[in-house]
Specification:
The protein has 410 residues and is of the alpha/beta class. It has helices spanning 43-51, 59-63, 86-95, 117-124, 126-131, 159-163, 195-206, 218-230, 256-269, 299-303, 346-352, 366-372, 383-393; strands at residues 2-8, 17-23, 27-30, 69-74, 103-108, 133-136, 143-148, 154-158, 166-172, 175-176, 180-181, 234-240, 246-252, 277-283, 309-318, 356-360, 378-380, 399-403. It is 27% helix and 24% strand.
């Protein structure tokens, strides 16, 4: 007999679940966040948020007389189903007399890979792809310099974005170790900023300066200062359930609306945690399309109680990585400005320490894994082989916790 569970797997892919089985003798706890099964908002509920913004006039009022509008959206590394929200935004712009030929959608890739047509159809919907100009942000080109922030971050921003008369953003609010949460001003920095700006922002974080998961941070303040200089007129912030469905939308001022979204995110993502585990399984979904994002699977470990895992316990990181190694022009490529193996990072040394780490993915090689992770990490591409290896280590049935997503908080 075995214990079997379905966990979300492979963002933007179907069927979207992985069946995982454990020996029946194991003490397995599936630790779900509070909002795991919260119902998805319908079109009317999403529209109601867009029409009732927090801290700003209605979008149609802001758009009056505007000749050039940009809508900036997060990329495929985030689960935001922009296609569910974009029709409400376009309706408001049309009410104000803004024609589609005067709208540009900018893909806020930061230092990630560019998006292609297939990505855009999944993210934005085919109707938008066929009728609106869409551009990938370029972190090395088409930039304008706007000075420095108070802490010295040079602000190079996408020139197309900067020149627009009206700037709108749609992004997901998920825990992030730099600015606390995604969404809000983060879609500007790093989303549509230059590599020099990204380097300054990320290098401070890698040194442990002003960071924190699931809370307001100094780096969030710096990011918001940059957004003040660059401009962001209307921000739409999305909260998710376990499978990436929209369960909350907060629109309006990029600070005010985002603060409300943070409160809702904390409530939805909070998880009841079982302590003193011998093994913890951390799933990287929804940030699991590529290996370069898989470290997010350890987000919960950074803020969980010290007794989550025994001193000699085992960490298992799980990620679909159906796109393989992935791409990050600042942190992930050989010779990139801030590339380093994660085993050398402060986060690894503080939170992983000497625990054994296993990595489960059917879609990467050892060469891929060791590009990012230290060679002490063991790769498994077959689930049954992973479980067999864990059984050999534990003579007695182990106590196990499984965390189905990377967006959970204690």
């Amino acid at each position: 007999m075995v214990k079997s569970y379905k966990i979300p797997w492979g963002a933007w892919q179907e069927p979207g679940f992985l069946d995982v089985c454990f020996p029946d003798s194991w003490n397995v706890n599936l630790c779900k966040m509070k909002g795991a099964n919260a119902p998805e908002l319908d079109d009317k509920q999403i529209k109601n948020s867009v029409l009732n913004p927090i801290g700003t006039p209605n979008l149609s009022e802001l758009a009056e007389g505007k000749k050039n509008v940009v809508i900036v959206v997060d990329d495929m590394s985030r689960p935001t189903p922009v296609s569910k929200i974009l029709p409400q935004v376009l309706e408001e712009l049309e009410t104000a007399g803004v024609k589609r030929e005067n709208i540009t959608i900018i893909l806020a890739i930061g230092a990630h890979r560019p998006m292609n047509r297939k990505d855009c159809v999944l993210k934005l919907g085919k109707e938008a792809v066929d009728t609106i100009n869409i551009e990938n942000h370029h972190p090395y080109e088409n930039l304008i310099y706007l000075g420095e922030s108070k802490i010295g971050t040079p602000i190079d921003v996408n020139a197309t974005y900067h020149k627009a008369d009206l700037k709108i953003a749609i992004g997901g609010v998920i825990p992030h170790p730099l600015p606390g949460y995604g969404g809000g001003a983060k879609i500007v920095l790093p989303g549509v900023c230059g590599i020099r700006t990204l380097e300054a922002n990320h290098s401070a974080a890698l040194k442990g300066v002003g960071v924190g998961l699931g809370r307001m941070t100094e780096l969030r303040e710096d990011i918001e200062e940059a957004a003040e200089k660059v401009g962001l007129d209307f921000s739409i912030n999305v909260i998710f359930n376990e499978t990436g469905k929209i369960i909350g939308v907060f629109s309006g001022h990029f600070k005010d609306a985002h603060r409300k979204a943070m409160e809702a995110a904390k409530e939805a993502y909070t998880t009841e945690i079982t302590l003193d585990n011998q093994i913890c399984f951390f799933n990287s979904y929804p940030e699991d399309i590529e290996l370069s994002q898989a470290f997010k699977g350890l987000n919960l470990l950074m803020v969980a109680p010290n007794k989550l895992i025994d001193r000699n316990g085992i960490i298992v990181i799980m990620s679909s990585c159906y796109e393989g190694r992935g791409y990050h022009s600042l942190l992930g490529e050989t010779g990139a400005k801030l590339y380093t193996n994660w085993g050398e990072s402060l986060i690894w040394k503080v939170f992983v320490k000497k625990k054994q780490v296993y990595f489960f993915s059917p879609n990467i090689s050892e060469a891929d894994l060791y590009h990012y992770f230290p060679k002490s990490v063991k790769l498994f591409r077959d689930w049954n082989e992973l479980i067999e290896a864990l059984e050999k280590i534990h003579e007695e049935p182990p106590k196990v916790s499984v965390f189905p997503t990377s967006i959970q908080l204690p």
